[in-house]
Amino acid sequence: KDFHVERMLSESTSRKSIALLGHLEGADADTKTIVYLEKKPFVSEAIADALSSEPTPLTRDFNNAEYTVYSMGGAAGGLGAVKCDVIHPATAKHVVKYTKHEVRVVRETAEMYAKVTLPYIEREELGDRIKWVHNILDKKKESERIMLEDTDPKDGFIFLPDMKWDQETTSDLYCQAIANRRDLPTLRSLTSEHLPLLRNILKKGCGVLESKFGLKSHHVRVYVHYQPSFYHLHVHFAHVDTEGSIECGKAHLLQNVIDNIELRGDYYQTVPLTMTLRTSLGLWKAYESAGGLPVEGGG
Fold this sequence. Notes:
Its main location: nucleus. Substrate binds at residues 132, 142, 162, 164, 225-236. By secondary structure, the protein is an alpha+beta fold. Helices cover 25% and strands 29% of the residues. It has eight helices and 14 strands. A hairpin with a 4-residue loop joins β1 (3-12) and β2 (17-24). Residues 75-79 have low confidence and may be disordered.
């Protein structure tokens, strides 16, 4: 009741989600809040009980920096409870992230990465933008959600469920491994020096999913994004039945990444990478300002 909707940013029928922009009661007019609602999966065993029960109250799952995740409605999740992400205060970058956008296919050369992409990342995407990641690594936030930790400063990582996963439905499993190292913003940063780290993440990440959920490695997609949603090396682990974040032009399977670096240690510092990019993002605008875009297909 304290949230006042200003406009809808986007909605997805496939994900059964909606993103709303507004402000909190009593907050400064310039301080915005984003509420992202997503329906949780049905739990067939609980539907009968849920139909005869009162809706459960809003429950806070966890908080980290500006991100808070709630569960709301649907007794025991039987009627498909709603996962509610609240981002407050929401910055202009958050608004862009959740707004419906056009997508283009871009071919990024190594030269373009060095001259445009990396300077943009260092200027716009580090520091406070990834404070929530450092909170996890420093055990200031979400420590109770950690499923596995390897404390090695070079080859270690923290493994935990992604905010998108309800931690109940195995077929929707979605986890992340976040590298302890803080000097690897993207796939382009990886060389032969980092092979022990990548192999460690792949082996131990798959191992914890098998031990906890009985999932063999052939049930799990393991990949990195380029461009990523945040610029600190992290690896996605998703059940093969999940639909999100695996599109061509964004996801690179980790085993293929390892194979490519084994063939050539500086593979990702030399080859062009074709990717999809939102036209609303600052990186797209940085490309335009640099005097043109390397577009796939020449058009």
